[in-house]
Amino acid sequence: MSVESTRKSPDSEGASSVGAPDVHVKTAGESAPPAATVASASRNPLNSLMAGSAGRNLGLVIALVLLCIVGVATAGDRFASVDNIMTILRLAAVIGVVSIGMTFVISGGGIDLSVGAIVALASVWATTLATQTMAADFHWILMVFTALAVGAGCGLINGSLIAYGRIAPFIATLAMLAAARGLAEIIAQRRTQIVTNRDFIDFFQASVLGVPVLVIIFAIVAIIGWVLLNRTTFGRRTLAVGGNAEAARLAGIKVQRQTMYLYILLGLACGLAAVMLMARTTTGTSTHGGLYELDAIAAVVIGGTLLSGGRGTIVGTVFGVLIFTTLTNVFTLNNLGISTQAVAKGIIIIAAVLLQQRVAARRGSP
Fold first, then answer.
1. pTM for the predicted model, two decimal places
2. Other Cβ atoms closer than 10 A to 70
3. How many angstroms separate the CA atoms of 124 and 121, rounded?
C-alpha cells in the first residue's frame, strides 16, 4: 500500500481549494483509469475547452455579438453609431463597478441585496450642501472620499452582522436595503440634490483619446478585480471560503474576517459607483441605484460565477454587464417597455442558473 499526497490549486477563473493536502490511499489491487477513457478525453479537446473558463467566455462573446447583430438589424445606424456605443459603455460602467464587487461577495458564498440603496445613500451624502461647501473650500476629491466612506461604512455593517452576528446574508442586506434607502430619503428630504462643483463634473465627464473617463474607471476596476481575485492570497481565500467555509477554517483562514472584508470591498465599489452616477447625472438622490441588486446579481450569474460560491470570474462579469446593458439599449431603441425588459432579464437569469446546475451535475457524475 502506498500513500500519495496531492495539493489542489485554483485555476485562473475557477473554484479554489483551501490549500490543505488531500491524502489518497492506493491499494495494490487498484487499477489505473481505462485506456479508452483517457483516449476519449484526449480526442475531445473541444469538450475540455468548453468546460473551462475560456469556453464560458467564448459563449458570452457569441451572445454579445448576436445581440449586436439584432441591434443593427432592428435599429440600424441608431444602434451602430459611435454615440450609441459610448452611451452603452457609460451605462455599463456604473453597474459594472458594482458587479465587480458583487462577484467577490458571491464567490465568497454571500449575497448582497442592498447595493442599490447604498449607492443612493452615498450619492445623497456626498451631495449635501455641507459636503459640497467643504469641497468648494478644499477640493472636489472630498466628495469622492465621502461617497467611498459611506459605502465602506455600510459594507462594514453588513459584513459585521453576517460574519460576527451570524445573520443570514439575505436578511442582513435586506435590512440594509430598507435602512439605507430610508436614510437617503431623510437626508435629501425626498428632493434631488444638484452637483454644483463644475471641476468635479468636468473631470468625470471628460474623455481621454475619445474614451469616457467613466469607462476608463470601469476598466481599471475590472483589471484590479481580476488581479485581486486570481493572483493574490485574498482571492484564493475568498474562493476557499465560498467553496467550503469549514474546510477553509480548518486550513487556518479567518473566515469571519475574510467575509467582513468582502462586504467592505463591495461597499467601496458602491461608493465609487455613486461618484460615477453623480457625475453622469449631476445629481444625488434617494432614487439612484434602483434595482441595481438585480442587475448586478444577474450580470455576475450570467458571467459564470457560481451562486453557491467557490468560483468567480471577473472577465465573465464584465461580459455579463455588457450583455445586459446592450440588451436594454436594443429594447429601448425598439420602444419596448421596462416591463418587457424585466421579463427578458428574468428569463436569462433562470436559464443561466439552470445551465450552471446542469454543468455542475455533469462534473459531479462519474
1. 0.82
2. 15
3. 5
CA distance 158 to 171: 10
Least confident of 41-50, 247-256, 279-288, 292-301: 41-50
- Structural domain includes residue 208: yes
Q: Examine residue 25 and state whether it is found in any structural domain, yes or no.
A: no
Q: The domain that contains 337 carries what CATH number?
A: 1.10.3470
Residue 152 sits in which domain range? Answer: 68-356
Closest CA to 247 of 364, 360, 109, 357: 109
Q: What is the pLDDT of residues 272-290, one digit of tens each?
A: 999 999 999 999 999 998 8
**Distance between CA 1 and CA 349 in Å, rounded?**
49
Question: Is 226 within a domain?
Answer: yes
| 232 domain residue, yes or no | yes
| Total count of domains within the chain | 1
List, as one string, the DSSP characters of 196-241.
Answer: --HHHHHHHT-EETTEEHHHHHHHHHHHHHHHHHHSSHHHHHHHHH
Find cell 419596448 and name the residue.
336
